[in-house]
């Protein structure tokens, strides 16, 4: 058998070590004499009549080691005492591993065998070992029960083997050897038997004690870890702003301070299970005030394995009333099994109140609250600044009517009566600055504030918008329109009249005549542009176009516009077709402007050798005016912005000459606004095959005229 040493053998004392050396057990190492019968001190092996006393000492020592669970120490002790009692040159405690005896603890001449296979085919688990606890071999060279070569490697000419068992379980085997044949007799055999008889039970006891000690250490570690986790859980629960608690069906509730207040002082630790908790909370639906079905309650759903968030009314023990709470419940799982739930409740009412107050406090609008009788209650910072109140207390001590301009107080009283009767009022009036007396034009919205549960009015609210900047902007706009409409038109009219006078006289040279004609055309174009700017300002920034309606025959208007266009463009053909009675109540001049713009755009953007078609279709209560030109289609990205006054497409996308920019700018926008002012609508389509078609749909007016 192999005699290679293990890489992890423990230090031992060799047989030839000095007598002052000590074994791994702390006992004197044993060095046999030539007869293998004397101890390291030169004394004989333990005599038979000394055995009972020495055995008692050994058993007491071994029992103490076993009680401490020191398994390895006990093995070393038993091995050393086996060598001591037998006077052997060496001893080894081996275990049976995969059918081979492997040395685990060794002393004396066998110290080198730790971790090695002994090569002894002793069959300690067979019938022989069961029949006899201890058996010896007087001469390994002559005994067929052992392998000679293995014994030679061990230096064993004589040996004694003892089984260490506990019941039917073989724990280990003790082997003592001597290099001299017949070294062991009955006394040595009995000595080893005494060691082996209690050794197996002591080893089993030591293993159990060691396992118990290790389990206790693990439990101690786990208890410390549990205390730490509980402290961490308490820290997490206490850090939650709302009410937070952890619950299982068979463990007391763990709750933070907010949850303690919610459930009642001192009540949370005594709660166990969902039923007792729900009895405290009494969760109800906020819409109906009815008790929530047990299976729909968030905690029940979490304990069933489904995370749930829901707003419910719950009872607040400390406040003595109901609170609207957002309840979020999440299941707690261990190895996939739900063992409890974590619940966090936040006071929705308090959250919303805080959010609303923040919104009101930071709003740039004036927001105020009064009692139903008009007693001031609250004014936000923007309102205090607008009305000149230094503090909220100053507003509460004032009279509401004093905040209105004297001339508008009757209107304010009417507004308050309307709010009490109908619930709201909105309109414009003027407030008064408390310190300066300045009149402040405002848009005032008054309304009642109702109780959340009963719906009864409890106060009056007001949201007020300061119109001073808006009024100033309107004044600037009106002044600008006045400048454009009057102060610019006067010199423009003078230029137009002067150019016309020079042309009528006919006394100018040809070059001067052309110059005067260009001046006249430019002035007319500037006049049209000024008109469009005024219309745009009134429409886009003001109250819209003003119409001067009268009975108008759109057929006559169309004929006049077509005739004027033909005079302006003698080289172009305009074809006009009319069907039906085209009379209605419209603004004649606005319709002339509309048709002139559409015809001018079509002539400028269409092929010069192709006609422009105008059709008037008058049927029922609506008249349709169509203007179509042939030629290149308008790109889709331009077509969608045709009536946008701020849209100017790239030059590469324009159709026709530079004048197209004028019509794409304000001209088409004004035509659409004229149509809308008459209650109609306008459409445009464009394709390569059909050309570009404008369709204007005009209702005949408040009363149809035929």
Automatic annotation (TrEMBL):
GO terms for biological process: osmosensory signaling via phosphorelay pathway. It is a multi-pass membrane protein. It is an enzyme of class 2 (transferase). It is found in: Membrane. Residues 483-702 form the Histidine kinase domain. GO terms for molecular function: ATP binding; phosphorelay response regulator activity; phosphorelay sensor kinase activity; protein kinase activator activity. GO terms for cellular component: membrane. Residues 1-54 are annotated as: Disordered. Keywords: ATP-binding, Kinase, Membrane, Nucleotide-binding, Phosphoprotein, Transferase, Transmembrane, Transmembrane helix, Two-component regulatory system. Residues 352-423 form the PAS domain. Its EC number is 2.7.13.3. InterPro entries: BphY/WalK/GraS-like, GAF, GAF-like_dom_sf, HATPase_C_sf, HATPase_dom, His_kinase_dom, HisK_dim/P_dom, HisK_dim/P_sf. Residues 1-11 have a biased composition (Polar residues). Its main location: membrane. PROSITE patterns: HIS_KIN, PAS. It comes from the Bacteria. It catalyses: ATP + protein L-histidine = ADP + protein N-phospho-L-histidine. Pfam families: GAF, HATPase_c, HisKA, PAS_3, PAS_4. NCBIfam families: sensory_box. This is histidine kinase. The lineage of its organism: Bacteria, Pseudomonadati, Myxococcota, Myxococcia, Myxococcales.
């Amino acid at each position: 058998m192999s005699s290679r040493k293990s890489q992890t053998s423990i230090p031992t004392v060799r047989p030839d070590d000095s007598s002052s050396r000590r074994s791994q057990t702390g006992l004197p190492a044993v060095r046999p004499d030539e007869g293998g019968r004397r101890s390291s001190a030169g004394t004989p092996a333990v005599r038979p009549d000394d055995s009972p006393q020495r055995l008692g000492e050994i058993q007491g020592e071994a029992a103490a080691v076993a009680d401490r669970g020191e398994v390895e120490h006990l093995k070393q002790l038993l091995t050393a005492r086996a060598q001591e009692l037998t006077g052997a040159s060496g001893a080894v405690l081996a275990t049976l591993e995969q059918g081979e005896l492997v040395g685990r603890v060794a002393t004396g001449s066998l110290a080198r065998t730790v971790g090695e296979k002994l090569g002894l085919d002793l069959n300690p688990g067979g019938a022989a070992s069961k029949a006899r606890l201890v058996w010896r071999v007087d001469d390994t060279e002559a005994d067929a029960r052992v392998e000679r070569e293995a014994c030679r490697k061990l230096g064993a000419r004589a040996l004694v083997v003892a089984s260490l068992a506990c019941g039917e379980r073989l724990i280990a085997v003790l082997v003592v050897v001597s290099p001299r044949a017949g070294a062991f007799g009955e006394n040595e055999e009995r000595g080893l038997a005494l060691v082996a008889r209690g050794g197996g039970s002591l080893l089993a006891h030591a293993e159990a004690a060691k396992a118990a000690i290790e389990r206790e250490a693990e439990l101690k570690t786990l208890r410390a870890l549990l205390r730490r986790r509980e402290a961490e859980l308490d820290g997490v629960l206490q850090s939650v702003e709302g009410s937070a608690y952890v619950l299982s069906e068979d463990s007391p509730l763990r709750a933070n301070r907010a949850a303690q207040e919610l459930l009642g002082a001192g009540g949370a630790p005594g709660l166990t299970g969902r039923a007792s908790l729900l009895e405290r909370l009494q969760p109800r639906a906020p819409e109906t005030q009815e008790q929530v079905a047990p299976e729909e309650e968030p905690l029940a759903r979490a304990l069933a394995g489904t995370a749930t968030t829901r707003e419910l009314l719950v009872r607040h023990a400390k406040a003595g009333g109901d609170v609207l709470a957002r309840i979020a419940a999440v299941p707690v799982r261990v190895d996939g099994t739900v063992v409890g739930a974590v619940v966090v409740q936040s006071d929705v009412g308090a959250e919303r109140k805080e959010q609303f107050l923040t919104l009101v406090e930071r709003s740039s609008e004036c927001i105020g609250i009064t009692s139903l009788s008009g007693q001031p209650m609250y004014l936000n910072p923007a309102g205090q600044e607008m009305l000149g109140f230094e503090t909220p207390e100053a507003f509460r001590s004032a009279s509401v009517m004093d905040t209105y301009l004297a001339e508008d107080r009757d209107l304010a009283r009417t507004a308050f009566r309307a709010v009490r009767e109908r619930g709201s009022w909105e309109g414009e009036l003027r407030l008064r600055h408390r310190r300066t007396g300045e009149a402040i034009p405002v848009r005032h919205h008054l309304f009642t504030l109702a109780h959340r549960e009963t719906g009864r009015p409890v106060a009056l609210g007001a949201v007020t918008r300061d119109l001073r900047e808006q009024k100033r902007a309107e004044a600037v706009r009106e002044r600008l329109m006045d400048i454009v409409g009057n102060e610019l038109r006067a010199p423009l009219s003078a230029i137009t009249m002067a150019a016309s006078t020079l042309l009528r006289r006919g006394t100018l040279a040809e070059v001067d005549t052309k110059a005067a004609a260009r001046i006249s055309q430019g002035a007319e174009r500037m006049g049209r542009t000024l008109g469009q700017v005024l219309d745009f300002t009134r429409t886009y920034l003001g109250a819209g176009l003003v119409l001067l309606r009268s009975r108008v025959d759109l057929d006559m208007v169309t004929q006049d516009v077509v005739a004027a266009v033909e005079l302006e463009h003698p080289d172009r053909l305009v074809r006009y077709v009319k069907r039906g009675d085209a009379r209605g109540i419209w603004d004649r001049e606005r319709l002339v402007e509309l048709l002139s713009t559409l015809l001018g755009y079509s002539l400028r953007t269409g092929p010069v050798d192709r006609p422009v078609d105008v059709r008037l279709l008058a049927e029922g209560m609506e008249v349709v005016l169509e203007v179509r030109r042939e030629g290149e289609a308008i790109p889709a990205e331009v077509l969608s912005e045709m009536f946008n006054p701020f849209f100017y497409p790239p030059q590469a996308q324009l159709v026709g000459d530079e004048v197209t920019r004028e019509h794409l700018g304000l001209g088409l926008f004004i035509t659409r606004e004229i149509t809308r002012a008459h209650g109609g609508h306008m459409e445009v389509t464009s394709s390569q095959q059909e050309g570009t078609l404008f369709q204007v749909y005009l209702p005949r007016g408040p009363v149809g005229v035929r």
